[in-house]
Amino acid sequence: MAGQAVKLMLNNGDQVDCLWLDRQNTAPLLELAGRVDSRTLGRHRQDLTDRAALEHWLEGLGQGGLSVLAALDSQAGGRTAGYIYLQKGQKSSAHIGEVEAFIHPDYRDLGLGSALLRFMAEYAEGQGLMFLKVDLPAERRDLVTAYKRLGFQIKAILEDYRVDRSGQPYDVIIMIKRLAVSGNRELLYSY
User: Fold this and answer.
1) Contact at 8 Å (CB) between 30 and 23?
2) How does pLDDT run across 118-169, given as a tens digit for each residue?
3) Overall number of domains in the chain
4) Enclosing H/E stretch for 97
5) Closest to 44 measured CA to CA, from 33, 59, 55, 30
6) What is the CATH number of the domain that holds 85?
7) What predicted TM-score, i.e. pTM, was given to this entire model?
8) 55 lies in which domain range?
9) In principle, which of 107, 127, 134, 184 could form an S-S bond with 81, CB 3.0–4.6 Å?
10) Sign of the CA dihedral 43, 44, 49, 52?
11) Distance between terminal CA atoms of the chain?
């Protein structure tokens, strides 16, 4: 997985090269971090503007179930266009993966986020996960609509659930996508 290249097609017909990051190769994400500011970042959960926090988070690559896929624009010298991460759950949540994507503004509305999410869903399913979960700021209706198109369903709206970098609480929408369950896997309950 780590180090293996993946190609994804954008809506405009261009391709981006995607690379699984590992603890020895975090440069694409650090390069992206150097091109964003807090305004661009919005309420993204990983603070790309805090290099120390970012490096600490990336120490989890290869351990604890963290996988990060970076999208690189080879036509722009390998500049990082965005990324998606999957954090596998632990213990009683080991069948659930949490995802979050960030696309640099220069690459938005090209289908990159959707392509990354579809790819990560296939990867998660291959890892035996049954669900993908995403937390979205409630005011980002555009993201909610995009995730719905990709098969996610709203499961909860939590008021003042998170606090942004300025200390302001904001509402979060929790969405879940059920991944295909293999025929030999028995569900714990049915209604």
Assistant:
1) no
2) 999 999 999 999 999 999 999 999 999 999 999 999 999 999 999 988 889 9
3) 1
4) strand 96-103
5) 33
6) 3.40.630.30
7) 0.89
8) 5-135
9) 107
10) positive
11) 38
